[in-house]
Each structure stands twice: as C-alpha cells, then as structure tokens.
Amino acid sequence: MNGATAMPSGRLRACGFGVVTLQVFWWTTLVATVALAGAAFVMIPRDWLPWLVVTLVVVLVESVIFWVGIITVYLTSVQLGMRIRVIGIVCGWIPIANLIALRLIIRTVRDEVRFETAKEALDRSRAAQRVCATRYPILLVHGVFFRDSRLINYWGRIPGELERNGAIIYYGNHQSAASVADSARELADRIRRIVEETGCGKVNVIAHSKGGLDMRWAIAREGIGGYVASLTTINTPHRGCGFADYLLGSIPEPAQRRVAASYNAAAAKLGDTHPDFMAAVHDLTQAGCERINRSIGLGQFPGIVCQSVGSRLLHATTGRFPLNFTYPLVKWFDGPNDGLVSRPPFPWGDWFTWLEPSGDRGISHADMIDLNRENIPGFDVREFYVGLVAELKRKGL
After folding, report:
1. Which of 141, 125, 168, 320 is CA-nearest to residue 231?
2. Quick one: which of 41, 86, 242, 342 has the fewest CB in 10 Å?
C-alpha cells in the first residue's frame, strides 16, 4: 500500500469515528426534533400515546449515539484540551449552549483528524529517506523548573516525530533548578557518558531556554567542546530576561525565600539532588547573564555549528497559563516577547531564526517545545524540528 494513502493510526480512526458519530447525532437530532414537533400538532391530544412512545425511542437512540461519540472523542482527542472539555461538560446541561459547545467539539476534533492523518501520511512517504538520521545523535536539553520525565515529556510530540524520521534521541537528565555553572557540570558529565557508552563521538545539542546558557557554559568551562558537533538554542535569553529582574525587584526577599524553600523541597522529592531555585532565577536576570557572558564570552565556539531560534507571541489571550498572564508584563518592560523573553536576548551564534507565523496567535515560549501538544495554525512545531535536524544532517553532522 502506498504510504500516502495508508490507513491512519488506531487513535485517529477512533477519533474520526467519534466525530462522525457526533455529526450523525447533530443532524438526526435536528431532523427528529422538527419531525416530532410537527407530529405533535397532528397527534396530540388524540394520539398522544404513540407520539410519546416514538419520542422516547428517539431520545433513547439519540442518547446512545451521543454518548458513544462524546466518550470516544474525549478519550482519543489531543486537541480538545482542558478548556474545551470543561466547556463541553458545563454547557452540556444548558439548552442552545450545549449545541454551540458540541459544534466546537466537532470542529476541533475534525480538524485534528485531518491534520494528523496528513502528518502520518507525510511521515510514511519519506520514511525511506530517514531525513533526521544525523551522523551524531540528538541531545535535548530542557529549561528551568522542569525535569526530563518518561510520563510527561517536556518536548511534547517532538522527540517521537524526530525518531520516526530516523533520529536517535537522548535527554540531558539534569536538575530542574540550579545555577548555570552547576547545570553545566551535570550536562558535561551526561555528554561524556553518552559518548563513552555509545561510541558516537559527538552529539548535536538542542537546548531550550536556560538550557542554552547551561550548554554554553558546559562547552566553555567544562571541556566538552570536542564532544559537541552543534548547539542550537531555542528561545534562550542569552542577554538575560528582564522579567526575572522585575520579579526579583518587586517581590520582598522573605517571600522569595519562602517560594524558594517550597520549590527546593518539592524538587528534591522529585529527584533533584541539590535544587537551587534562587540561583537559577538570578542567572536568568540581565545582570546574571551579563556576568555569565563576561566569563565565557558571547561568541560562537570554533568547530561547533552554533545557531539560535526565537519566537513571538502576539496576544496574551492566545497564550496558555501562565504565559497569558506574563506576556503583557514582559511587553511593558521589554517589548515583543514569547510570554517570558523579549526578542533582543535571543540571537546567538552563526545563524538566528525568528519565528512569527501569519495570523494573530504567534508562538509562545512553551509552544516552542510543544509543551501543550497544540496544533497551531500556520506553525507545525514538529515539522519545524524535523527541518532543523534535517539541515544538521545535510551539513554532515
């Protein structure tokens, strides 16, 4: 069977079945309602019993159709998200509003099925090319306040997409919050272990947010430059995050200490050996990054392909919490931003890519790692990373 016409995955087939079922419910309910209302004028009150029996049968059948459809899409859809699911539950008991909510659910899941089916077809059509099969494996380095987890991947659907196209993926596995220097030591040890255990020679590093600062320090100060073929930083505040300066200047120190203590205690229970909330935050400030750049320089590293990426969120309402809250604050202090970091700190290395898709949504700090698993109109984050890694392959890396 041709890859472009092959059947979609089981999840998508189930999702598509759920959408069709809900569409059948929508139209048959509309037709049945009109028909029963018309019959009521003719049959009631003389033949009210047959009319009532037919009505009860229709209600029973339509209820079965509805619940089969709605349960199926709730269990299989990724794009519904928590907001639409809650809207569906709340509005389900309100006449008229429930129909509007149902149309929203149908449209969202239908678009998801179409998009993901085309995505699967694209991957099948190029499977033999292995466009992401780079010479050196890919090391994904997370940002601050997150850990690499098998249950909830920091990078969303990106690693799976890269692997389907031939990439070999590793993760930084470093602490969620620590100073740049401490994180760099962890990452340097991790890279050495990967190279020693696999014999791969080098790694291609893709680092998000603070992870980009950590890797620059690791290369400059921890002696792993020979093990790194390329470093791509994603939305990294190379010159500092003004919002971090604002927070430190606005929140009283006792409150800062309480937040730090609570975070460090929670992080320790989740696996961090020496979590340091305040050290991480201070290293993200403009003063902190200025100090880091004085120590390790801001230029690229000889023999290593260095590049950076940045993006812009266009409206607070199009970002997910908490970035919808922080976006206007960052815009007030720093101008156009991704919900956390403005444009000026992003550029670094030999090339800089600025992402600002058409439309009125934009791309947030979290969108760049597919944290919410959201299909964004005008920007396919998974395909962006496929292109990025494919370019590394074309460079012989």
Report:
1. 141
2. 41
Return the pLDDT at 2. Answer: 37
Local structure of 136: helix, strand or coil = coil
| Same domain as 88, residue 62 | yes
Q: What is the largest CA-CA distance in the chain?
A: 93
Please list, in sequence order, all residues whose beta carbon lies within 8 angstroms of the beta carbon of residue 342, skipping any fewer than 6 positions away. Answer: 242, 330, 334, 335, 336
Last residue of a domain, one of 103, 124, 145: 124
Tokens matching residue 174? 């470093």
Task: For residue 98, give every residue at least 6 positions away whose Cβ sits within 8 Å of its Cβ, in sequence order, or none.
Answer: 91, 92
Do 44 and 187 fall into the same domain? no
pLDDT, residue 47, reads 79
The pLDDT value recorded for residue 30 is 87
pLDDT digits (tens, 9 = 90+) for 99-114: 889 999 999 999 999 9
CA distance 358 to 367: 15
Angle at 261 between CA 260 and CA 264, to 5 degrees: 80
Among the listed residues 9, 21, 19, the one whose alpha carbon sits nearest the alpha carbon of residue 111:
19
Cβ atoms of residues 60 and 68 within 8 Å: no
Kindly provide the residue ranges of all beta strands, DSSP E only, lying in the chain, ordered along the sequence.
Answer: 138-141, 169-171, 203-208, 228-234, 305-311, 351-355
Q: Give the pLDDT of residue 367.
A: 93
| Amino acid occupying residue 274 | H
Same domain? For 256 and 323 the reply is yes
